[in-house]
Amino acid sequence: QVQLVESGGGLVQPGGSLRLSCAASGFTFESTSMTWYREAPGKERELVASITSRGSITNYYLDSVKGRFTVSRDNAKNTLYLQMNNLKPEDTAVYYCKTASIGPYWGQGTQVTVSS
User: For residue 40, what pLDDT is reported?
Assistant: First the structure.
């Protein structure tokens, strides 16, 4: 049974940082490309970042997060990460991890709120 469990969200002030984690199980994580999506209130869910199975340096990033967010993975721990720096109020959303090369399978999401 595929499971994706996000964690690490919370309330942070503008300019702050958070690191999201996505713990994966039930499939061969090291062979699977992965993605992060987000959904803000009243907006469509959008792709934020993606990473290939081996963590290629040519990862995809949404233009508005380039230079601030970094996607990474630890295949030994079956975990996907999203390091988010210099957060802005417009980054407020529920963040989801999703499999890219199988499924798709989604996690339950973790809330990120950027506010002073």
Answer: 97
